[in-house]
Amino acid sequence: MAGVVGGLAGASAAQAETLADAIALAYKTNPILINQRAQLRVTDETYVQARAGFRPQISAQVDASRQVSSGQTSDSGDALLTASQPIYTGGRVASAVSAAEADILSGRETLRSTEETILQQVIQAYADVLRDQEGVAIRQNNLDALKGQVDEVQARQKVGDLTRTDLAQTQGYFFQARVDLASAKAQLEISRAAYAAVVGQRPGALEPTPTLPNLPTTLNQALSTGEQGNPSLRSSQYAEQAAKLRTAEARDQRLPNVSLRAQYGYTGPASFFQPHVYARDATATITFTQPLFAGGVIDSQIRQQIERQASARAQTDNARRTMVQQISQAWSAYLAAHENMTNADDEVQANAVAYEGVQKERRADLRSTLEVLYIEQSLRQAELARAAARHDAYLAQAGLLASMGLLEANRLIPGGVDLYDPSKAFDRVKLAGAVPWEIIPDALDRVTSPGIKKLPPPPSAPVQDTPTR
Questions:
Q1: Sign of the C-alpha dihedral computed for residues 315, 318, 320 and 323 taken in this order
Q2: Which distant-in-sequence residues (6+ apart) come within 8 Å of 100 by Cβ?
Q3: Rg for the chain (alpha carbons), in Å?
Q4: Distance from chain centroid for Cα 400
Q5: Following DSSP, what letter does each residue of 261-309 receive, concatenated?
Q6: pLDDT classification of 48: cutoffs 50, 70, 90
Q7: How far is CA 10 from CA 121, 126, 267, in A?
Q8: Whole-model pTM?
């Protein structure tokens, strides 16, 4: 079934736009995609914020005061530098960091889903323009042919070979053809406007659509690939992991915390303008904290996170069911569209043979003008149906690939375009504020905190035909 649609009929020229050109432009400029990438970078910052729980907090404080009482004046002041360093947080910070990682990975899958949606819109807009361009050409050819027939019937009617009824019938088809052409041109402009909205510029001369890669040969292949590659399902799986980690984070609040606090500075009840009489003060404190009673808030937060985890698990199950439904429906649409395209080709061929024959019979006065007009209109309608069938078959292929998670820019753009890499954006910020010794509290926290389980990368092509769960 792969490659059953080689392309749609359309205008081509030396500098014609290709589908890859349209996808590349939309990939770089579409505002929905740009917004989603920015949203993912917002999520990236939650990792830095979570890791800050392993890092020291340093603050400076300077106070100066003057007290006047019963005519007596006294000055005091202090200048302190305070640093605190978590040693062990009961796994709470490690769970928060892992949850942030899961959120980021879920966000990347959401970005993949958004990219696939935009690519589907680009493909549909591109195919719509090609279909409507072909429709205008068919309508124009029909109008031109009917104009010739009107002229011929008028000439024959003047010499008494045909009646006014023959002329009226021919003119009726001609006037309807003018209406149909105007409607086709209007529809083409609508499709061009939709193309400009999603791609970023109005279409020029478009080349035929290329064959889409990685189409499956069986429904089981499509379902197996979707289980591994569907971005909505993968996003839900990571969101479920994030909910599980936040449940662990809530439970970790029951465990003890160990931190180190150091303070250095000057203080004294002396004149603020005489710093040499200030006393120097330096302290270091190790604090062990064990929560004993929190008024029920910790238990409440744990129950709350457990329910959120259950909700996330249900959303994953729903995403899997939705994936199966989408792939099954897309597969059925794919098969039906291929069958319709084959039938449309046969219909055009049959009507072309009939039209050629009836013209010969008309010249031998074996057919009436009305019969010729009827067969001709049947041929035009068959040509329009064939254009629509090719259009629908191509969109069915794109929809099937999207539901499997294989409709991606790197598969559709031959090269020369820098693809957005969310991991590079994350790498630019993940070490912000890092200190070398944060690995110590990190390692201690990991003893009691579960980590994230990364999913295997999405498949690059349909997997083997094996039963799916």
A1: negative
A2: 46, 47, 49, 50
A3: 36
A4: 15
A5: EEEEEEEESS-TT-GGGPEEEEEEEEEEE-----TTHHHHHHHHHHHHH
A6: very high
A7: 19, 10, 84
A8: 0.86
Question: What is the amino acid identity at position 76?
Answer: S
Cβ-count burial 215-225 (b if 16+ within 10 Å, e if not): bbeebbbbbbb
Higher per-residue pLDDT: 231 or 3 = 231
**For the domain bounded by 19-80+89-255+298-446, which CATH number is listed?**
1.20.1600.10
Per-residue pLDDT of 335-393, as tens digits, reads 999 999 999 999 999 988 998 888 888 777 777 777 888 888 889 999 999 999 999 99
Residue range 103-132, pLDDT digits in tens: 999 999 999 999 999 999 999 999 999 999
**Mean pLDDT throughout 280-303?**
93
* Predicted pLDDT of residue 228: 94
Give the chain's largest Cα–Cα span. Answer: 132
Answer for the pair 291, 254: CB distance below 8 angstroms, yes or no. yes
Q: Where does residue 158 rank: exposed (0-12), middle (13-18), buried (19+ CB within 10 A)?
A: exposed
Q: Which residues pair with 268 in a beta bridge?
A: 77
Q: Residue 145 pLDDT more than 50?
A: yes
- Identity of residue 123: I
d(CA 48, CA 96): 11
**Amino acid identity, position 297:** V
Type of residue at 35: N
In angstroms, the first-to-last Cα distance of the chain is: 24
**Burial grade of 239 (CB within 10 A; 0-12, 13-18, 19 or more):** buried
Question: What are residue 182's phi and psi, to 5 degrees?
Answer: -60, -40
As a whole number of angstroms, the distance between CA 92 and CA 122 comes to 45
Q: Is the pLDDT of residue 271 over 70?
A: no
Domain extents for the chain?
19-80+89-255+298-446
Taking the C-alpha atoms of residue 37 and residue 121, their distance in angstroms, rounded to an integer, is 18
- Which range is least confidently modeled, 21-25, 167-171, 387-391? 167-171
Per DSSP, 405 falls in state: T
